[in-house]
Amino acid sequence: APSGGGGGSAQQGSMAPFALLHLHALMPSFAGNHVASVGRVLALLSLVQGAPWPEASWPAEAAAAVATSTLPRPPGTEHPPPPPRPPPP
Question: Taking the CA atoms of the chain, what radius of gyration do you get in angstroms?
Answer without folding.
Answer: 23
